[in-house]
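Feature request disguised as a bug report, sorry. It would help if multi-protein outputs had a clear separator. Right now it looks like this:
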Amino acid sequence: MSGEGADAMDEPRPATYWHLARAVLYREYLIFVRYPANAVGAIVVTLFFFGVLFVGGRMLAGPALADSIEGIVVGYFLWTLSVGAYSAVSNDIGSEVQWGTLERHVMTPFGFAPVALFKGAAKVVRTFVISSVVLAAMLLITGTSLSLNVGTVLVVATLSVCSVLGLGFAAGGLAVLYKRIGNWLNLLQFGFVVLVSAPALDAPWLAVFPLAHGSELLQRAMVDGTRLWEFPLTDLALLVAVAGVYLGAGYAVFQLATRRARRLGVLGDY
């Protein structure tokens, strides 16, 4: 091999977004397999709370619970997805602040916000894996059967979670600025219960809030067996619009908060 050819091979190549996506996905995979006790613990804790909800509901409501158990399973599935995506982004950024590793993301050729966005997407993938296991366990526990058209469930659930991901970015931006606000961030998770169970069908104005419209469509997909192409275009357009608006707004808040933190010189402070 000629000297010029060897020099060309040794010359560092610029990193692309494909390399970034592959790296953050591989990082999530390593965290998942190298800390299996933590991953299993998340599943056990989630199922424990569902068991309390299921057993307590049977004791209080008796046979009446059987009429709504499918909706409860779907709602709990979407809630676990939402909490996983939201807390993964906001807590991860808060942890980076505490560890003092936040500046490393700023120094990457992509910038801090794109790295955080790709890491958030990777965490959503991991959350889908864990929530799918939880869903299978819930179906076994309750003896319920649902329509699981993978394509429809994946599209509707992903778009529903995107709005929550935007809230996670906004919360992460506030964590960069104000540091210890974990109690406020955790409080929002309980609000997801209200949004998932919001009667968007009876009160259409609720559909503009995160999760409300997505929860309704996911119920129709998994309980009634409605396929993606069977939904009215207006419903799908509203789902996409809500996901895009909240994700874009949350991402913008995150960028503004990190820029302000850099101007104030508190980005790496803790």
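(second protein starts here, but nothing in the output says so)
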Amino acid sequence: MMHKKRPASFYWLAAFFGLFVMFLYGPISAIVILSFQGPNGGLTFPMNGFSIHWFFALFGEQLVGDFETSFLRSLQLGLVVMALTVVISLVTGLAFRKKFFGSNLLFYTTVASLIVPSILVSLGIGLIFNIMGWEVSWTTSGLGAHLTWTLPFGFLIMIAVFNRFDKSYEEAARDLGASSWQTIRHVVLPIIGPSLIGVALFGFTLSYDEFARTLMTSGVKNTLPLEIFGMTTNVTTPTLYALGTLTTFFSLFMILTAMGVLFYLRRRQESHGSDAGKGV
């Protein structure tokens, strides 16, 4: 069987994609490999043995950095930002289904936060807190700074979701006597559930690894990205790589968890759909 000859553009695009994958995963792979250095290993290749010594050292007493506390701080902040992003994005998306006075101005004001340099947002929030005499902390100014980053993403996702939402489902529910809340609870939310999971994942991951908007707004207590940055200038052992490996696998775990929830919701919807029309 004769195979059709591929055009030269195919090989150029394949080479470009290969370079993209190498730049994306090459540094991560190097950090993961070097985190398994032997006890006498250094920060660069070649490997001097193979062990999990630096993972145990990470949870031991550290001369520089407080990995455990900063990790818990980032986890708590990420979860709060995730919950607020989902709720506010959903409510805002519902509100923007109809035009109202000032809706265009509010829309462009919200998405403008995406094009403002993050470090300027961080500097501005920190400055305002100082002028007002409020204490800069990761629970207040840090939380607000993260929301300026996650909310526009969640808002745009919900706008896209509701733009292609079939309103006939809601009309059918109201014709059957459902109230507005019952329509939202039993019709709208189950349909847009997978999209809300996506918004939650966006909210958590964007907050969890946010550095620039946290720099001037976290106060004296560092989140994990700030702690890692501080460790890069002081730690001279592969402990830093072990920390990078663990945080990478934690991010993968969160993504897989979100995919598992999406899979469960999809199977649940399919199961409910198969019951329709049985007259039970």
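Even a blank line would do. Unrelated, but nice: Residues 274-280 have pLDDT under 50 and may be disordered.
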